[in-house]
Amino acid sequence: MKQQAGSPNLLVFGSPSRYVQGEDATRTLGTEMSRLGFIGPVLLLASSIVREQLEATWQVAFETENIPLTIQTFGGECSQNAIDAGVDIAKSIGATSIVGAGGGKCLDTGRAIAATLDLPVVNCPSLASSDAPCSALSVVYTDEGAFEQYLFYKKNPDLVLVDTALVAKAPTRFLVAGMGDALATWFEARTVIEAGSPNQLNGGTTQAAGALAKRCYEILLNDGLSACQSVNSQTVTPSLDRIVEANTLLSGLGFESGGLAIAHSVHNGLTTAPGTHEYLHGEKVAFGLLVQLIVEERPQEEIDEVLAFSRSVGLPVTLAEVGIVSLDSSMLSAIATRSVAEGETAHHEPFAVTASMIEKGIIAADSLGRRQG
């Protein structure tokens, strides 16, 4: 699927039909789906860990509402093969709605299955590790984990339900990765606004999207470190609630309706280096943001603020911290070339972006991160 047709001359804002967040929210999943008229059969695609944690709760939640449920364990990669397999299962059970429960790749796969079959989709993120749950797109990778393409859909999820008790029990690294993804939201949206470039809905950016993106950054600075401490103690606190909302809802609306720029393009470029595949989306985006700010020649105090925040919560600021210990010229060229491929969001900048500029930006960002490490 290609990006939806539109025009930057028309302001476009997209969002889920309903967003629900709170401690033990999973218990309300059946009720929330009934409220929207989703009476099943339901195919629920779940990561293995989340299935172990929640299967009993799901069974009760769906039985209470008399909704037929089939649970399928997610294989780990949002690839075309995984999507095709899920479509076959959904057809075999006569599914009338799809639920994804787990991390971003699980949700992306569920969304792709639903879009292929033109069915309603519900996203239940178990982590606050990216801003994907609220969006109308999936990121598809090869079976080996290299970025392949974006799939754009005609609508956002029908329901996003976030159980903060799950987020609090997950390793802190996932919350921090979500903050890395969210960290880029305001800076990329600002660039798109300044350039008059299209957002991810191929329209102009509304004031609402810009305000949400900026608020997202403010919450990160105010609550990021405290939220990490909450997860370290597996406790749901007000600061964790705010960060979960920033990572999931504010960043989700802000990136899609605000727009993307160099930071996400560099992420896509980094996926061409095998050493980066063990690192999370938001970790690579955080490094990509440093590259963006350097290429854009933003004020040093702004770059220093982003660096200081990243260091405080443990986000990568060097190539070594995203798995590239030794960077040779051919690898750097491959990363930079992929970052400026046709259709990449690096071209949303208000100036022409070349592979050479990205190469220099990567080297400068890595050097700055090492100096201040």
Task: Give your account of this protein's structure.
- Belongs to the iron-containing alcohol dehydrogenase family.
- With 373 residues, the chain is an alpha/beta fold.
- It folds into 2 domains: 19-169, Rossmann fold; 261-373, Dehydroquinate synthase-like - alpha domain (Dehydroquinate synthase-like, alpha domain).
- 52% of the residues lie in helices and 11% in strands.
- It is built from 13 helices and 8 strands.
- Helix 10 packs antiparallel against helix 11 (300-313) and helix 10 (281-295) packs across helix 13.
- The longest helix is centred in the middle third of the chain and has 26 residues, at 207-232.
- The chain is globular.
- The chain starts with 18 loop residues before the first strand and ends with a helix.
Determine the number of helices (DSSP H or I, runs of at least 4 residues): 13
Quaternary status = single chain
Which CATH-level-2 architecture of the largest domain? 3-Layer(aba) Sandwich
- The general outline is globular
Given as residue ranges, the uncertain stretches (5+ residues, pLDDT < 50) are 1-6
Determine the structural class based on helices, strands and strand pairing.
alpha/beta
Strand order of the largest sheet: 1-8-5-4-2-3
- Give the N-terminus to C-terminus distance in angstroms: 42 Å
Which fold name is given in CATH as the topology of the largest domain?
Rossmann fold
InterPro entries: ADH_Fe/GldA, ADH_Fe_CS, Glycerol_DH
GO molecular function: metal ion binding; oxidoreductase activity, acting on CH-OH group of donors
Family: Belongs to the iron-containing alcohol dehydrogenase family.
Keywords: Metal-binding, NAD, Oxidoreductase
